[in-house]
Each structure stands twice: as C-alpha cells, then as structure tokens.
Here is the input.
Amino acid sequence: MIPKSYDEKMARIRAGAYRSGDFILVDAKDADISGGILTTGFRRGADGSAAGSRTRREFLAEMETLVAERAVDVMLGSAGNIERLVEGGIFAESTVTPAFRANETTDVWLNIRGGRYRETPAQPYRGADLLRARADLCLFSMTFNNDAASDVAMLEAYRAFRIEARAAGKRHFLEVFNPNVATGFGVAETGTFVNDCIVRALASLTRAERPEFLKIVYNGRRALEELVAHDDTVVVGVMGGASGTHRDAMEMVARAEASGARLAIFGRKINLAEHQLSLTTWMRAVADRNVTPAEAVRGYHGDLQRLGLKPDRALDLDNTITDAALREDGTP
Here is the structure.
C-alpha cells in the first residue's frame, strides 16, 4: 500500500521537525450525519451554477476525485460512505488516509428540515459500529455548554468510546465544538472556556488513550496560541466553520498555521466550492506560505475563469473577511 502523507507528516510534527509542506489538510465530507437530502451540497451545472442537491452517488464521486488527486491528507466521511470508497479500492492507490465519524452529537443535526435540535444543549449519540467501520482513524466529537449535566454526559460518552476504540484497534482525533446554546460569552471568552474544558478533559487520559490531534473552532489568535503553547505534546487543528467567503477559508489556514496549529479541517467550505480541487490546491499554497490569503482568492477566481465556471460571489466580495473570530483578530 502507498505510504500515507498523514502518517509521514504527523511523525515529523510529533518529533518537533515540522517543516514547510507538513501542514495537514482534512476534507470533512461527513455532512450526511448532520441531516438528509440537502447535506451533499450543490450539483453544479456546466457553467458552475448551483442546480439542486447532489445525489449520494454524485457526492461520493466528488470524494473519489479528491482522493485520486491527493488533494488532501485525510478524507473524513460517515462510516457508510467510507465503506463504499474502501470497497472500491479508492484509498489503496492514494496517499490519502480514510477516516470515519464515530459519533454525532445532536448539535450537528442542523440540516434536518424542520428540525429544532439546535434549541437544546447538545446530547451525545453514536451510531457507528467501531468493529465494522472500514478505517482505523476516526473522529469523536464533544460539546461543552457550561451545564454540569450535559457536560458530564459528553465526558461519560467519551470515556465509553475510548474503551471500545482501543478494543477495536481504532485511532481517534477529538473534535470540540463551541457551546451550542447561549452562554453570554463573547468570542474571546468562548475561546478560553473551550480551552479549559479541553485541558481538563485530557488531564485524566494516559498516553495510550489520548487523541491523535484536536479539531477545534478558531476562536481567535490568542485562544489558539494559548492552547498550542500549553502542552507541546498535543497537536491542534482548526475546523473551517460556517460557509463564509473563500477569503475566510484562506485566512483561517494562514492564521492557524502561524499560531502553531498543524491541521485544518474543512467541510462546507470545500463541499460548497465551485471547484473543490482548485480550492484545496490554493489552500495548500497558503499553508506552505507560498501565497497570501488574498493572492490565493484571486488565484482561485482566475482558475474559475479559465475553467469557464461562474463564481458564487464576485471577487471583491469573496476576498472579504466575514468570520467573527478573524475580524476580532484585527487586520492581518
């Protein structure tokens, strides 16, 4: 089997030998666990215009293309979709590592039409069978809401998962969302609250139980740098968050890398792109510090023009920072 870029990069990162080119990109194509028909994103017409929702088969085809082109280091999907790709031999000839989502807290059930799950504190739920899943790397998700009952439920679910994961021979990475109900916190306060919850949760874990890396919301440069600096044995990655502009995505990569994060995990920003392969190519260029975020957005729009694809947003608008945490950081 072809060596996986994730394993090679993580070995250097853990050894303190991180270098240009080692920043890890993860495509989070696990949207189907968040809802139903609408989660696959837009089917694109010949000119790039949105034309309804993709079918599952079309969604899988997008995943296959990115894996075949080695556009990312890790392809994260639902256990059912990863099974389909593994059975098709997609990963055998690629440097991309397959990973599956091991659980789905209720705060990610956002795309169920008529659903009201975001109105209540997140609850733990796990549908995937670890023994049957067809990858050895998986994601476990938690959400802390500053509520003792719901937060304890999350931690108990994580404790039970770790026991099963070890028995099933699965590695995992840990995703920690921001609170999904009102806490009264601003961006900075949310960042410090989540940081403390993570450090407290990891404190009881032995080395063998610890996650491969963290996947957290970007709550601003200060919060990220604080978490990275606290424990140099913990590898930190940021998640892409809401759809936003392509400048938001590029800026997230640049600021995360500069602040000590070593991974970026994007879901909607890749899945909703007019041309996913081009977008990930420019993300890599930003992570490697070969271009600035603004240059990357202009380069991406140049690619769309050459491909004859109509952008969803005009260049000037798409090159605007809209994410609240990025804006709070100030001018880059």
Remarks:
- The mean pLDDT is 96.
- The longest helix spans residues 148-168.
- The beta strands are 24-29, 42-44, 50-53, 74-77, 97-101, 137-143, 171-177, 214-217, 236-239, 263-266.
